[in-house]
TrEMBL record:
GO terms for molecular function: 3-oxoacyl-[acyl-carrier-protein] reductase (NADPH) activity. Keywords: Oxidoreductase. Belongs to the short-chain dehydrogenases/reductases (SDR) family. Its EC number is 1.1.1.100. It is an enzyme of class 1 (oxidoreductase). SUPFAM superfamilies: NAD(P)-binding Rossmann-fold domains. It comes from Dialister micraerophilus DSM 19965. The keyword Metal-binding does not apply. This is 3-oxoacyl-[acyl-carrier-protein] reductase. PANTHER family: DIHYDROANTICAPSIN 7-DEHYDROGENASE. The keyword Transcription does not apply. Gene3D superfamilies: NAD(P)-binding Rossmann-like Domain.
């Protein structure tokens, strides 16, 4: 198994990419810490992991405060004794331009999508240095190119990309790797209702050369590779998982 004896913290683990990745990591031998705001969703993921013989710990938490980030790390260490992988996956979206978006929506998106990565990374890095572990951040194709009506989202995800590269440079000497995944348009619990509306579905699909939307497992398998020893010489990588969209 590719993650045997590894301990992985996954934020935003109750649905979408986080859920798919948590289940795959557990299948590959990792002990998984499930972090998110909705306890019931996390417990469902925990149940599904245990059904395949995996181990999981549920920590309901809002990752937008440093105090909570510290508590997540403390509980992980109390339960599993170490940290090998931090997957910063929690995210949110608010539509709007600089003209139409409220100050509150801007702050919320930046807090969840970017500041939380700083808090989680700051709390985890001393322990990742001990295990020569790694950090994976969920960025977005929206951080590589401009999304219409998504000024805060694009700004936050562009920040995630630069944050990833900075952390990679700072901690390469300690054996800690940091990489980012940039999903394109994907079908998840958050987007499925919109994806089923025509002509929106066609509008989203047309620019994708592979002519399909991403799935949770597309990101999960990318995360698995980046988390595993197979990618031991990769750091600072920004990996598009978008069916060729940003390339085109």
């Amino acid at each position: 198994m590719r993650l045997e004896n590894k301990v992985a913290i996954i934020t935003g683990a109750g649905s979408g990419f986080g859920k798919a990745t948590a289940k795959l990591f557990a299948k590959e031998g990792a002990e998984v810490v499930l972090v998110g705001r909705t306890k019931e969703k996390l417990e469902q993921v925990e149940k599904e992991i245990k059904e395949i013989g995996g181990k999981a710990l549920v920590i309901p938490a809002d990752v937008t405060t440093y105090t909570n980030a510290e508590k997540i790390i403390e509980k992980t260490l109390e339960h599993f004794g170490k940290i090998d992988i931090l997957f910063n996956n929690a995210g949110t979206f608010r539509a709007g331009t600089i003209e139409t978006m409220s100050n509150e929506d801007w702050k919320d998106v930046i807090s969840v999508n970017l500041t939380a990565l700083f808090y989680m990374g700051k709390a985890a890095i001393p322990h990742l240095k001990k295990t020569r572990g790694n950090i994976i951040n969920t960025a977005s194709a929206g951080g590589l190119i401009g999304f219409p009506q998504a000024v805060s989202y694009a700004a936050s995800k562009g920040g995630v990309i630069s944050f990833t590269k900075a952390v990679a440079v700072d901690f390469a000497k300690d054996g800690v790797r940091c990489n980012a995944i940039c999903p394109g348009t994907s079908e998840t619990e958050m987007t499925k209702d919109v994806m089923n509306i025509e002509p929106l579905r066609k509008n989203f699909l047309d620019p994708i050369p592979m002519q399909r939307f991403g799935k949770g497992n597309d990101v999960a398998y990318a995360a698995l590779y980046l988390a595993s020893d197979e990618s031991s010489y990769l750091t600072g990588v920004v990996l598009p998982v978008d069916g060729g969209w940003t390339m085109s």
